[in-house]
Fold this protein.
Amino acid sequence: MKRVAMLMSGGVDSSVGAALLKDQGYEVLGFYILGWLGTPEFPCPWQEEEKDARAVAEVLGIPFHTVNLSIVYEEEVIDRFFALYQAGVTPNPDILCNREIKFKALWQAIRQFECDYIATGHYARLQRQLSVNSYQLSKSKIEKLETENLLKTENWKLKTASHPAIFKSRDENKDQTYFLWGVDRTMLDKIIFPLGELTKPEVRKLAKKYLLPTATKKDSQGICFVGPLKVRQFLSSRVETAPGEVFLTDGRKIATHQGVELYTIGQRLSAGSVDWTGDVPPLFVIAKDIKNNRLIVGSDAATFGIKLVAGSINWMSEPSDRLFECLAKIRYRQKDEAVHVHKNGSKLSVEFATPVRALTAGQSIVFYSKQGQLLGGAIIELIPNQNETVKRLTKTFRKTKV
């Protein structure tokens, strides 16, 4: 009997995942990760979540363990979260959490339990496949692979397909593959996603069928293992900021800000903070001049961009061509966009077929095949039109001084 380490968060998804795996004949061990311990100012309800996870384990009759990863979580997720905001970019801590904690630190911490697999309640599908290094296959085999979404039919090939592949879940509204692109692909042989073929309503029904105490529990919100909190106040507690000026693209100063690090691209500026005669039009952050502590705002239309450069690439299934087309998204639950990708060493130059709102440095761009296979992802580092906006404004100020 294969042994599975089921990550149990105290929510309905991981609860049902544990029940399904037990029904499928696995020896299931439940694990709760103790991540963020909280502070008096920013408490974390981890005791309540752990209690719920333990209650589910008791109903299912499976062993339950709490693994204290608070130190590594602080170092790998919280400290990086603040450091990146301090640098003026907008990170995604959930992606850091999956990569560094759920599928790395936890697996290392539970080695003594000799588990064969690790499972989570993510809405994603994982398909285990044969090695496909070329198209030198019989027609019948190719048709079979295409039917199973295992062989790509775009105008490019994958460098290797000898490891499992992640695909979007059947429930497109709940699909969480966006958050999984950073996971080390060598871990894919050890991962199970028991909810990949289910919709959220189906999961709720199963929770009631199994008489799980989390059946009617609301979905969690907020940062991974931190819970709901006011992000701006959370940032202000550790990110050093200084008041600065807010400008239109023509160089007109219209307001002051409390710290450029606290704003993100596409964010609407509060009308009450703007020095404007008459009705204040909707104004949005279109660029950040970190060096000079300036915020540049404009119309919503000005937040759209078409090109970006990304780094810190992680391929799950890497296209072999330097130039290729695929689908991509820059935020969770955004619709897929057609992109042209140019691999240039450790960087990717990406151009969207149509303009996309609020391209943001620090956020992830995640790539998919037309069949919904997660190809990989990268961190957005540079948005050319935003850099040009900052340069033009800087040049305007220099001319004014002269």
Summary: The longest strand covers residues 304-315. Confidence is low (pLDDT under 50) at residues 130-153.
